[in-house]
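Q: Hi! First time doing this. I have a protein sequence and I read that you can turn it into a structure. Is that right? Here it is:
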Amino acid sequence: MQPGVCVPTAAAMGLFCRGCLSRARILPTLCCLPRQMSRWNSQETCSPAPPQENPRVLITGGLGQLGVGLAQMLRKQYGTENVILSDIKKPPPHVFSNGPFVYADVLDYKHLRELIVNYRVTWLVHYSALLSAVGEANVALARKINITGLHNVLDLALENCLRLFVPSTIGAFGPSSPRDPAPDLCVQRPRTIYGVSKVHGELMGEYLHHKYGLDFRCLRYPGVISVNTPPGGGTTDYAVQIFHDALSTGHHECYLRPDTRLPMMHISDCHRATVEFMQAPECQLSLRTYNIAAMSFTPEEVAQEIRKHLPHLKVTYNPDSVRQTIADSWPVRFDDSNARRDWGWAPAFGLDELVTDMLRSIRDKRTDEGLPVS
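A: Yes, that's right. Below is the predicted 3D structure, encoded as structure tokens:
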């Protein structure tokens, strides 16, 4: 064997949990979970799938910003029938016709378990969550979806020896965190329920990995910019809306100050990072949660870049106190050196490429829909 070359064994590939191979230690009662954690106290042995078998992937919250595009990428690699998209909403016709879609409520533990068993799921991508601004408007619902739903997914992943991906966020940091850049490991202490729930998820996943061998993987996403899904209540949503406004009315009113700098990423880079991270052998991972970065810009900088293509764009600023306060507590840049070193992460889109692609894609979309283009 060559020095420094890791050979992925069945365990390293996440085909079974360490907790499945020997008697698991008994946990104290967990009052936050209403059911007995059967896998955590189990003596069962998992039967790993053959190494050459494609993963069977279930994506929760699949009709949000990220699920449909990730499903398309995974289906190209692993086959259409091996990637099951799910949500609690009715899918549009093109989503329903492009591959398996099922109803799944992350708060319904029994039904989630049935889906995992019936579809022989081996990878679970957990996208269900309420985002930052929406979560602050309904803390009780955010706590239920973002924390109770997460507990259901963690329990089922451990019980069924799944490879589990749970995204985290720029919002997992707080005002006491290093901001320029924010490293993978530092003080976090966020001040939104969204951020608190994401830190909780990071720590629970890491705990279950180290104690029971759960193959838990987590990426902290920056603001993700895409064409096909409307903004969903995040603090970085202006960086999507400004492109639509530029091509429809020629005017955008921004809810952040013009100098508010935040990390951003094109959705194609986000999807590619997620797939590459899920495919990475466990022996290459020094962490369970990584920052990933591509670019960092302010509203004024992205407006100036858009004006290179659309000189008429007018931007006015009317800072919203809730979103501005959230943005001011977040990092202005991510340090993603560990992701680059451990599993070869590298973004393809900078600001100029992102702006060119977004304007072209939205222009084409509006033209196809018979809408005017400014």
